[in-house]
Amino acid sequence: MTSVKAKMVWSYLLLIALVVALLGTAFTVLIWNYYYGSAHSSVKQRAESAISQHSRSLMSLSLHDQADYLLQNMADGGPTRIQLLNSEGEIQIDSDGFAPAVRYTSGDVKSAMAGTVGSWSGIDPYYGERVTSVTIPLKGDTRIVSLFRYTASLEKIDNMVGQLIQMAVIAGIFVVLLFLGLSLFLAQRIVGPVQELTRAARYMAEGDWTKRATKRSGDEIGQLAETFNAMVIELNKREKLKNDFISSISHELRTPLTSIKGWSETLKESEPMDDDEEVKLGLSIISKETERLSGLLEDLLDFSKLSARSMELHAEPLDLNGPVKETVRQLAVREEQTRVKLMATYAGGPIVVSGDANRLKQVIINLIDNAFKFTPPGGSIRVATSASEEQKQARVTIADTGTGIAAEDLPHITEKFYKASSGQGGSGLGLAICKEIIELHGGELRIDSEQGAGTIATISLPLAKEPSTP
Known about the structure:
This protein has 470 residues and is an alpha+beta fold. It has ten helices and twelve strands. The chain has helices at residues 3-59, 63-74, 107-113, 155-205, 220-269, 276-307, 321-331, 334-338, 357-374, 430-440; strands spanning 80-86, 91-94, 118-123, 130-139, 144-153, 316-319, 341-345, 352-355, 380-388, 393-400, 444-450, 454-462. The strands form three sheets. A five-stranded antiparallel beta sheet has the order 2-1-5-4-3. A five-stranded mixed beta sheet has the order 7-9-10-12-11. A two-stranded antiparallel ribbon has the order 6-8. A hairpin with a 4-residue loop joins strand 9 and strand 10 (393-400).
């Protein structure tokens, strides 16, 4: 048994044992008071009733005559025995007709000798058994004439109370053992799965991501195991994506560096005026690859800031048409190179939002750049801005007639490190960064696509609140 399970079991057992002991003590006290109190009350009531009935007749008799009177009128042979004592506590006669030479010094007799009704329970020196007794003094004019002592045996009550206490002890032991079994069962049900989760977590910490926790029930522990397994699956997926990203980014970095290195060495070894066209081509490739490297590094930097929650927005009220127009003009030069038509329509009036113009341009550039990448020659890209006063939202829509996105890739394209199986290069961070930037603005980036029919990217941003007039 493990230390955790042992501590849990012993804690339950100690608690149950304490409760059982308290209940057993209370039960014993109640039983004791009920039976012994009833026996004593019965003897006292009988004694007081008899003395009240016979006291007038006894008062006029001598001690010897009182003994005769007791045998003739007061001894009924019932369970209660009567003893006549003199004022010194010595037995004169009992209800059986015996007069042993016994002197009582018990508490009841001492109280009666002092003039009050006395009660006592204990081993009687004459009968040799446990009794409860009540002694009542019979007073003359100035002194105590005699003492009438009524006693009842407690043997049957002792046996009955002993049996009840024995049964209570057996019941208590049974309850403790029952709860011990339940404690072991509960400990196994609770600690076992938790230990299994701990082992699986330890394997994960050591790099083994294949371990799973077994769901043994539908309770909270079972739900914890299910949640743990879901977490492991998600971490596995993220670990795979991260490894794929590292592999991909390494390849993406290696390709431009190889091109730059190769053309640098070619230009270095060529004569100054050997081939002007080759020099221009080499410098153009170096420039493009350098720009590509710069883009990759910007993606990594933005991803680092977003992961650390340290990206800051310099938000200010602006007309959303402004950054969209600037971006369209900036990327219109790619029409001739790609033979893809870029068209834009803008809302009639200003669309005022609170945003960072540079970050919004970064998102729009990324989305239009993706549209150019995946739209074949002869296709088109349409950019449109609009606003809905009812919904308090501004929208930028970028729709292309490109190849579209596969259905299995569409739900994941905005996840970090995810790269669709399109054969195009990239870091796999562009759309994830765009999504994070738009969400930092309080908006939403939605991408709808059908393979072979094109893609529609929609940016939704909250309209800026108009300042209240004084």
